[in-house]
Amino acid sequence: MAKVPKVCLSGGLEICRILNGMWQVSGAHGPVDIPKAVQAMQAYVDAGLTTFDMADIYGPAEEIYGLFNRQLRTQTTEGSTVVLQGLTKWVPRPSPMDPKVVKAALQRSMSRMEVDRLDCVQFHWWDYGDKRYLQALGYLADLQQDGLIGDLALTNFDTHRLEEITSKGIPISSNQVQYSLIDQRPAAKMEEFCLSHNIQLLTYGTLAGGLLSERYLGKAEPKGRAELCTASLSKYKNMIDSWGGWGLFQELLVALDTVATGHGCSIANVATRYILDRPAVGGVIVGCRLGVAGAEHIEDTLRSCSPELLLTPADLQTIDAVLARSRNLLQLLGDCGGEYR
User: Fold this and answer.
1) Is residue 1 a part of any domain in this protein?
2) Contact in structure between 183 and 151 (CB atoms under 8 Å)
3) Which residue in 82, 91, 86 sits closest to 124, CA to CA?
4) 11-21 pLDDT, tens per residue?
5) Which residue, 116, 185, 291, 301, is the most exposed by fewest CB within 10 angstroms?
6) Domain hosting residue 214, numbered range
7) What single-letter DSSP state applies at residue 148?
8) Phi/psi of residue 131, each to 5°?
9) Do residues 311 and 282 make contact, with C-beta atoms less than 8 angstroms apart?
């Protein structure tokens, strides 16, 4: 298996450039068997994929991480310590923000994850019109100084708010945003700002919930709940509709398949590597169907970061020729995260 490359966030946390996404255990993708989910995490760690991304609102995600963390501590022998990186999100509803509220939220996550310090807290806020997000971030920065947080980060904040927050002296190390061949809004203006302020982008939706794969190449447009049976499939099919529709998407899959065939890899590998190679991208989050038999694609995921997979100028031209005919999602949806507000 390929060695997983790492990146160091500005707060000092070293993470894998491929992160294991735990949204899939939130319940929106089907029932979750917690013991099986905990057991399934071992295969990812054995492959070197030690970074897990979760949130306080992802159902039992933090608890699953905590149970696995406890299991590792009991099984680890001297000289064979496995170090996990647990990135969680705090996603409060807009409400009064004071130090006690903020600290209580972090303590709840620490208890669930069975840690005495949070590696990284990624803050999300639903309503920009409610400026109390600045208060919350100020208190989070204080708790970072107190050692309760390693890296302080954001989730789905746009470039304007990112500039506002950093101008207040709040040290942001990453922003988690949707970034894929379909959704390239981060490249419009956020990328440049992040590069100039040492902020990494951690990207989700890079495989469009699995739609960017051979499984959908040459297939009729999926419709209805029977075919779009998970929250991811439904969400990213809507993005494809906004981007250019199923016909253009099929042209993109053909282009990706041509590139993938030339490299002896999968469509998902090419789609992931395209985003990994973007200048401000620190890592790509690949969703894990933990505990679902046959749902792990660990070996294929590792090929995405193999040093042998290098997209050539001709490869990029093949892909970009299709992308150039898509709609401008920045104009349609607004900057990153605009669809959530």
Assistant:
1) no
2) no
3) 91
4) 999 999 999 99
5) 116
6) 6-340
7) S
8) -75, 10
9) no
279 in a structural domain: yes
Looking at the chain, the whole-number percentage of residues with pLDDT higher than 70 is 97
Contact at 8 Å (CB) between 193 and 336? no
Residue 232, both tokens: 């991811």
Q: Which helix (H) or strand (E) holds 178?
A: strand 174-178
For 15, the 3-state DSSP assignment is strand
How many CB atoms lie under 10 A from the CB of residue 341?
Answer: 12
> What is the rounded CA–CA span in Å between residue 311 and residue 52?
27
How does 93-109 read in b/e, with b if 16+ C-beta sit within 10 Å? eeeebeeeebbebbeeb
- The number of folded domains in the chain is 1
Q: d(Cα 106, Cα 101) in Å, to the nearest integer?
A: 9
Q: What angle do CA 327, 125, 67 make, to 5 degrees?
A: 105
Which residue's structure tokens are 């996603």?
91
The per-residue pLDDT for range 198-215, each reduced to its tens digit, is 999 999 999 999 999 999
- CATH code, domain carrying 61: 3.20.20.100
